[in-house]
Design a protein that fits this description.
- It is built from 16 helices and 18 strands.
- With 611 residues, the protein is of the alpha+beta class.
- The chain has one domain.
């Protein structure tokens, strides 16, 4: 686990998890570069923080940067010998971050992510009960907000539904039905597990059994294309990078170039770069931010006294939100609560007559709910109680905008809302600045800091101080971000072996943070033509040659998880269960959404409400 702890690139998180842009290209050839920024069109700013919660554009780019090839990667399970014991300290940690993303974190984030394609502000009902300014009345339909994806004009609801339909179908393909050509599978069989790819990048460059494309300046690369295929999404190799020109098509490339430190033609290090493009006909990142902003308006309880006086107490505020959740999404809420126990959802405070909401999720996976998925259940029981991972998103003044934590099976997710807008808070969870409208154009800098550890036999391994600075700019047609690793991550290991671990992995991490300009990731979403949006993402870093670390990686590679394929299959089955429940609610709401076009006709296009 030390290997993945040493990397813990699963925790590289400049945008509420920039862990995907680092090497997320050809599975195993990429340490997930989560430009999500999860590259997402959304996590592209403090705005990305909320988009993180609300829109699946994040999912799209995240999945594309890793080309979904992750589905074919080999996992690891703990072994008993000392070396493998050290190596495993991060393997389960990394897999926990990823799989509990699916089995636990995804359950929570799926809620806003699922709402994302069809949520935001809806037309206000004349009979709606009065609520504080900025918040949506409880009887507003969250589904009617798919209008946000269509420009104003005749048939807006029909056009909005069309965009939602295409987006949801696309999400199902890439999340749940990835497919690979024989050439891709053959290539993946030749690559080391993704967890060790970063460590072994320098030696991988010299391997001739990998189907590299030879490029200028002695660079070697692999190019991938992806496109819808029946109900799935098919990935194939290509000789040259091909920019997508058809909606829902993608292109990606992973490239290694000898760094200037090469000696006698032998690469002592390589510059690695992963990049990709995705063309969509649904919406761009600005649209995703707009409905993320609308989604925040629904994140409240009853907004009535008695107000909370302390954090994390489940009471009438939480019950009001749950009642709304059940009414809006009856099938989906039933499935979410089948898998999760909620200790708290939100806290509401008077705010001197200006109510504020601390969205304060405290949830825990019900292990017994995973029994229909025996391999996933066994994995979670083995690893879940050992992993702790945290991420904080802050601004230049040290104010917090979001906190996430996975602590031995318990998930926390915290952000603040005032006037229906995202609001910074201090360490005591009090408002600490002006609220922001995620949909408004803007620019600035935000910071993410992460840590991840795993404890076995009273020994804790991991990384802390994974800190990124992200510059962002957004306007009505584009969102652009650039993320940079600010510091060298700190290794966490037992005192008796910490110095040894630093000798083995310290220089590798220092090169990663500062070599050849340091780790950088970029994201761009821009409107190309009417109804077309292009997402572009890339990440680059230098990876030093670390023979001892590579030896450990090889030992770790030999400890293959025989059940990896079954676990991945069960992950997708769980995801399909949630997706099908959401689609049931979505399809039930379609007639009401489409009827909004008739309402607009009757009112001459002046229907009351934000849309």
């Amino acid at each position: 686990m030390l290997l993945q702890s040493v990397l813990a690139l699963e925790a590289l998180d400049p945008a509420c998890r920039v862990d995907q842009p680092l090497l997320a290209s050809v599975e195993r050839m990429a340490v997930r570069a989560d430009l999500d920024v999860k590259l997402s069109g959304g996590r592209a700013s403090l705005k990305g923080v909320a988009a993180c919660a609300g829109h699946d554009a994040a999912v799209i780019l995240g999945m594309y940067l890793r080309f979904h090839l992750r589905e074919y990667n080999h996992g690891r399970y703990p072994h008993n010998d000392i070396i493998a014991g050290a190596i495993r300290q991060l393997t389960p940690s990394r897999r926990m971050t990823r799989r509990c993303n699916f089995a636990l974190v995804a359950l929570l984030f799926f809620l806003p992510a699922a709402l994302g394609p069809a949520c935001g502000a809806s037309a206000a009902s004349p009979a709606s009960e009065s609520v504080p300014a900025g918040f949506a009345p409880a009887d507003d339909s969250v589904f009617s907000t798919c209008l946000a994806f269509a420009p104003p004009g005749p048939g807006r609801a029909t056009r909005g539904i069309g965009a939602c339909d295409r987006q949801l179908a696309f999400q199902e393909r890439i999340w749940l039905h990835p497919e690979f050509t024989p050439q891709v599978r053959k290539m993946l069989d030749k690559l080391p597990p993704r967890q060790a790819t970063v460590i072994r990048a320098a030696s991988l460059y010299s391997r001739n059994d990998i189907p590299w494309n030879e490029l200028p300046d002695n660079a070697r690369g692999i190019s991938v294309i992806g496109q819808p295929e029946a109900r799935g999404y098919l990935y194939d190799l290509t000789k040259h990078y091909q920019s997508p020109e058809i909606p829902e098509h993608m292109a990606g490339a992973f490239t290694l170039t000898p760094s200037p430190t090469a000696i006698d033609g032998t690469a002592r290090g390589v510059d690695g770069q992963v990049g990709g493009e995705l063309l969509m006909d649904t919406y761009g990142a600005p649209g995703a931010l707009a409905f993320a902003a609308d989604l925040l308006r629904f994140m409240h309880g009853d907004l009535k006294p008695p107000w909370d006086t302390e954090l994390g107490i489940y009471n009438h505020h939480d019950r009001a939100f749950h009642e709304w959740f059940h009414a809006q999404l009856p099938a989906f809420s039933e499935r979410v609560e089948h898998y999760l126990t909620f200790r708290n959802v939100l806290d509401e405070f008077s705010g001197d007559g200006d109510p504020m909401v601390l969205f304060n999720i405290d949830a825990e996976l019900k292990p017994e709910s995973l029994k229909p998925f025996p391999q996933l259940y066994a994995f979670y029981r083995s690893v879940g109680p050992a992993v702790v991972a945290t991420t904080d998103v802050t601004d230049a003044h040290g104010n917090r905008w979001m906190e996430t934590q996975f602590n031995r099976g318990r998930l926390r997710w915290i952000f603040m809302i005032r006037h229906g807008r995202l609001t910074p808070f201090d360490t005591s969870y009090r408002p600490a600045g002006e609220s922001i409208d995620l949909a408004a154009p803007g620019k600035g800098v935000y910071y993410t800091q992460s840590s991840v550890t795993i404890t076995r036999l009273d020994m804790t391994f991991g990384l802390s101080g994974l800190k990124f600075a992200t510059d962002f700019h957004s306007d009505r047609d584009r969102v652009e971000t650039t993320s940079t690793m600010e510091t060298v991550p700190t290794l966490i290991a037992p005192p008796g072996i910490h110095k040894i671990i630093d000798l083995i992995a310290g220089e590798f991490l220092r090169t990663l943070a500062h070599g050849d300009g340091g780790f950088k990731a970029s994201f761009l979403s821009q409107r190309e033509a009417e109804g077309l949006f292009r997402y572009t993402a890339s990440a680059r870093a230098e990876f030093g040659y670390a023979p001892t670390l590579e030896l450990l990686a090889r030992v770790g590679d030999s400890v293959a998880d025989q059940h990896s394929a079954e676990v991945k299959l069960e992950e997708r089955q769980l995801g399909q269960d949630l997706f099908d429940a959401f689609m049931s609610d979505y399809n039930s709401a379609r007639p009401k959404i489409l009827a909004l076009d008739e309402v607009r006709k009757d009112t001459g296009g002046n229907a009351k409400g934000r849309h």
